[in-house]
Give the backbone structure.
Amino acid sequence: MAKYSIDLDKAFSALADPTRRAIVNLLCDGPKSVSELSEPFDLALPSLLKHVRVLEESGLISSEKAGRVRTCKVQPDTLRETEAWIHQHIAVWENRLDRMEAHIQRMKRKH
């Protein structure tokens, strides 16, 4: 099995929350300040910052503070490695389904 440099448990745990997935989705358009990230959500700033912290700890995003403004950006390598893990498992299941379909076709031809 392939080794991954990220902690997949943390990445998938972070992405399990719909608010955090929405934050990552927003950041895929480019870096945004925390105040820009808070606009589409009905959350108090401390609650949003907790989501940001979880995403940072998972390696999915990073942030920098300049003065009073904290700007967040997505970490594409982490997303790519998470995606690679998913695609690896999709490929395994597609292979199994292809084999099952071939078996069913062989069984139909016998009857």
